[in-house]
């Protein structure tokens, strides 16, 4: 089986390596010429692709695959949301031209607003930020398609190798919302969930991909800074806007079990 990964960044490259180790043929794209050799040395078939707003065509060999994984960062700062949506529209056009039938689109739990309660896939997202609204529009571009099916995966905050959570707030003070629950996912579970979708052939479903562990922000990041030997952050023990992101569909469709039952066991 051939998997094409559009965007071999932190998550995409790690996913590609895992798929290669499990016997898949993997094609990977990058926007940077200097990364072509890096990807090739890993065994990934490398492609240089740049989906700018005006681009209408791309290398058709990249889209000759059984599953296409789209994990390109939206880069929403600075008003780039419209360009992101146009970029995705161009990619969808290429998918339609190429005849790809199965797509995994990586989204974010940012589509949910701070609604002060638990949210699952059964809840209609109510984004309260510009980035959340754009991400929801992006999801809708894929869910509206009828000639291919898309598994939409909403990742929580990403942690893992080179993203130690102790560094996020180490040494900072007067940090608000210290009692708010965290919504995070480790790279190993990002990969595990993606592979489960591919192996079990579950498409046309939305998945919240977020650890069921939701300690308070203040205690969690203080512990992680301590584990990383960094200055401890200082949080204000108040509770402002928050959400607790959990999943119904990971168990219902994939019977997925997260790798660890405690953040203390995670390697970063």
What does this 3D model show about the protein?
By secondary structure, this protein is of the alpha/beta class. The chain has a single domain, classed as 3-Layer(aba) Sandwich (Rossmann fold), CATH 3.40.50. Helices cover 32% and strands 18% of the residues. The protein contains 8 helices and 11 strands. The strands form 3 sheets. Strands 3-2-1-4-5-7-10 form a 7-stranded parallel beta sheet, with helices on both faces. A two-stranded parallel ribbon has the order 6-11. Strands 8-9 form a two-stranded parallel sheet. Helix 3 links the parallel strand 4 (67-70) and strand 5 (102-108). The longest helix is centred in the middle third of the chain and has 18 residues, at 81-98. The radius of gyration is 19 Å and the shape is globular.
Topology, please?
Elements: E1 2-6, H1 10-21, E2 25-30, H2 35-41, E3 45-48, E4 67-70, H3 81-98, E5 102-108, E6 118-119, H4 130-143, E7 149-155, E8 157-159, H5 166-169, E9 184-186, H6 187-200, E10 206-209, H7 217-227, E11 244-245, H8 249-254
Parallel strand pairs: 1-2, 1-4, 2-3, 4-5, 5-7, 6-11, 7-10, 8-9
């Amino acid at each position: 089986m051939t998997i094409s990964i559009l965007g071999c960044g932190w998550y995409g490259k790690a996913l590609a390596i895992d798929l290669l180790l499990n016997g898949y043929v993997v094609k990977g794209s990058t926007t940077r010429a200097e990364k072509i050799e890096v990807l090739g040395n890993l065994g990934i078939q490398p492609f240089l692709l740049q989906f700018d707003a005006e681009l209408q065509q791309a290398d058709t060999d990249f889209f000759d695959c059984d599953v296409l994984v789209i994990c390109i960062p939206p880069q929403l700062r600075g008003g780039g949301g419209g360009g992101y949506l146009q970029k995705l529209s161009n990619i969808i056009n290429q998918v339609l031209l190429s005849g790809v039938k199965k797509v995994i689109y990586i989204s974010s739990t940012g589509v949910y607003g701070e609604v002060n309660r638990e949210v699952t896939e059964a809840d209609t997202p109510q984004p309260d930020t510009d980035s959340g609204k754009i991400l929801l529009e992006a999801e809708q571009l894929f869910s509206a398609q009828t000639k291919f099916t898309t598994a939409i995966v909403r990742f929580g905050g990403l942690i893992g190798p080179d993203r130690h959570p102790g560094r996020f707030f180490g040494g900072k003070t007067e940090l608000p919302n210290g009692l708010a629950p965290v919504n995070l996912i480790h790279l190993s579970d990002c990969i595990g969930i993606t592979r489960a979708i591919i192996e079990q052939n579950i498409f046309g479903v939305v998945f919240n991909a977020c650890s069921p562990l939701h300690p308070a922000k203040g205690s969690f990041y203080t512990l992680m800074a301590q584990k990383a030997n960094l200055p401890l952050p200082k949080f204000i023990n108040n509770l402002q806007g928050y959400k607790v992101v959990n999943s119904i569909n990971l168990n219902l469709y994939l019977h997925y079990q997260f790798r660890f039952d405690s953040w203390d066991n995670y390697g970063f």
